[in-house]
TrEMBL record:
It holds the Pfam family DUF3471. InterPro entries: AmpC-like, Beta-lactam-related, Beta-lactam/transpept-like, Peptidase_S12_Pab87-rel_C. GO terms for molecular function: hydrolase activity. Residues 412-506 form the Peptidase S12 Pab87-related C-terminal domain. SUPFAM superfamilies: beta-lactamase/transpeptidase-like. Transmembrane segments: none annotated. Residues 34-367 form the Beta-lactamase-related domain. Residues 1-20 form the signal peptide. Keywords: Hydrolase, Signal. This is Serine hydrolase.
Length: 602
């Protein structure tokens, strides 16, 4: 027995350094491979951390967090993690569920009484779990918050009632940021604290995530932060402004570093525990990383027959990666991309954060590292990605050449003068856009984004949004203006949600401020059709029309001698002038135009 024990101790003594050396060799290989990936994908900078069981075994920065000044990325550099924030949001509800403060099978309206969905069946059947697994039947409606941001949570809740579904409940998985906003608000209603406070107190404070934060000002004042960059297919890099996600924070507002995100992954790998403390309920951990909805078929490809399945839990994507169960979630927000992943049965976690907008690097690096750490034969993830990017570049060049060769000036004209398209256009599920005419060009302002219109065909115009300081020439939105029965521009349609028919915005013409003296020239009695007397008069400094047997109508000036009836869409009056005097009025309505001559004052 003594001899056996001595042999085991000797074996341990000699084997451990070998394992340690092998690990160091892997990390040296990774140092070279990861820098090669950064250069090949034209990535300004990124950071990565690898955790095993309850330890960070590798953490390093590559490239630059400030390209202009060549300041290197470190493992402590803060990046925006985008939608990798979602697992934090759902986990707040997981903690509250353990405390029996929330029932995942209850309707969300139980916790947000004023919440309404667009269809009765949605109000009756959607439960909290559906919000957590992207299975409500609602498409993304992302432009509602991206183009029309708001710091008002109550305003955003009101918009949801007017966002149409595209399919039935639990019939199809469809990513939806709005439902994670609702989860954040449910948590806030139950605790009396904001989503930010809940995440900080329940997770950041307990996991030593002392520099992780939720707001741009907090990010900006940190000494070790990264700027965000866009990189085009030619490799040209441009710094991007940080994006203020406002009240939509629960869907993707967290800024963090790979060193602090490692503690988050360690917690999940260890069944919700960190340093012996149960941070996330163990039952919730199991439920959140188990399949709650099928995302797609996830069938094996010819190139990767051992990568399969595509499911979703609560704030996590699930798949089988070469025989290993993988739980992960990416993140993309202006100038940044991210991926946080763990392999629970292998006690392995990998987090990759980069300052490249819409970057493939986080997924490529995650897979490269997973192959090495799981002792798998490395696949050429980088080579495949570079090839796809080259193909995309070629396709883009061909498409541009075709577009340039077929481009021609429109042979049609708008049905109205440009001034007639100005006004406020509003959809209750999205927001307001203002269209103004300046120097023969129509300009659009959505609240966050501005842009300008170029005539396309008839009453269709291309909208070129000014995004990050430049017009988005490659992907304009088409705005189709629509008219009412009297021929006036009454609204516009825009394909802001691919899963639905174009969204229609109702137009309100811009009101012109006229003085009482200006209004006085319209006052008087008019004999309509030579029979009925109509009175035009001023009351409380506003102009009104009164037709016997009908209520009085306030008139809103929209142009020279032209007024809308404030409460009746498609009805307006036009006054006629001769020799500086108003001589008649025309009531323009869907069933015709009715003229009334002004009665002379005797």
């Amino acid at each position: 027995m003594r001899r056996l024990l001595l042999s085991l101790l000797l074996l341990s003594f000699f084997v451990s350094p070998t394992f340690s050396q092998k690990k160091q060799d892997v990390f040296k290989i990774l140092d070279t491979e990861l820098e090669k990936a950064r250069v090949a994908l034209n990535t300004p900078g990124f950071a990565i951390a690898i955790v095993q069981k309850d330890q960070i075994v590798y953490a390093k920065g590559f490239g630059f967090k400030d390209v202009e000044n060549q300041v290197p990325v470190t493992e402590n550099t803060l990046f925006a993690i985008g939608s990798s924030s979602k697992a934090f949001t759902s986990a707040v509800l997981g903690v509250l569920s353990k405390e029996e403060k929330i029932d995942f099978d209850a309707r969300p309206g139980k916790y947000i009484p004023e919440l309404r969905f667009a269809e009765p069946w949605m109000n009756e059947q959607i439960i909290v779990k559906d919000l957590m697994a992207h299975r409500t039947g609602l498409p993304r409606h992302d432009f509602s918050w991206f183009m029309f941001p708001s710091e008002s949570k109550s305003e955003l809740i009101k918009r949801i009632e007017f966002q149409e579904p595209f399919t039935g409940l639990r019939q199809q998985w469809y990513y939806n940021n709005w439902m994670f906003f609702l989860q954040g608000e449910i948590g806030a209603r139950l605790t009396g604290k904001s989503w930010e406070q809940n995440v900080k107190e329940l997770f950041f404070d307990k996991l030593g995530m002392t520099r992780s934060n939720f707001r741009i000002p907090e990010m900006e004042k940190d000494a070790d932060k990264s700027f965000g960059y866009s990189v085009d297919l030619d490799g040209k890099t441009k710094r991007m402004d940080y994006y203020n996600i406002a009240a939509m924070g629960p869907a993707g507002a967290i800024n963090s570093s790979v060193s602090e995100m490692s503690n988050w992954l360690i917690t999940w790998i260890n069944g919700g525990k960190f340093k012996g403390e149960q941070i996330i309920p163990e039952d919730y951990v199991k439920e959140a990383m188990s399949a709650q909805m099928v995302v797609a078929a996830g069938t094996p490809s010819k190139e990767h027959p051992d990568v399969q399945f595509s499911n979703y839990g609560y704030g996590w994507f699930l798949a089988s990666y070469r025989g290993h169960y993988r739980v992960e979630h990416g993140g993309n927000i202006d100038g940044f991309s991210a991926n946080a992943a763990f392999y629970p049965t292998d006690s392995l976690g990998i987090v990759v954060l980069t300052n490249q907008n819409g970057s493939p690097l986080p997924n490529v690096v995650r897979n490269m590292v997973a192959d090495r750490m799981l002792n798998l034969e490395p696949s050429d993830w980088l080579g495949e990605t570079v090839k796809r990017l080259e193909e995309a570049k070629e396709a883009q060049a061909k498409a541009k050449a075709v577009a340039d060769s077929t481009a021609k000036a429109s042979l049609t004209k708008p049905s109205h003068i440009l001034m007639d398209y100005t006004g406020t256009y509003e959809h209750p599920g999205y927001g307001k856009m203002e269209i103004d005419l300046k120097n023969d060009t129509l300009f659009v302002q959505t609240g966050l984004l501005g842009g300008f219109l170029e005539h396309k065909d008839y009453d269709a115009f291309n909208l070129f949004l000014i995004y990050q300081g430049e017009p988005n020439r490659d992907n304009p939105f088409v705005l189709q203006f629509v008219s009412n029965m009297t021929g006036d521009i009454s609204g516009l349609k825009a394909s802001l949600e691919p899963a639905l028919d174009p969204i229609e915005f109702k137009r309100t013409p811009k009101e012109n401020e006229l003085s009482v003296d200006d209004l006085k020239k319209y006052e008087g009695a008019y004999l309509l059709m030579g029979v009925q007397e109509v009175k035009i008069y001023i009351k409380e400094e506003k102009l009104y029309a009164f037709v016997p047997g009908q209520p009085e109508y306030e008139l809103v000036n929209i142009g020279e001698h032209e007024f809308n009836l404030k409460v009746l869409e498609g009805f307006k009056v036009k006054f006629e002038e001769k020799d500086g005097e108003i001589i008649a009025v025309n009531f323009v309505q869907p069933n015709g135009t009715f003229r009334g001559e002004r009665k002379k004052v005797e």
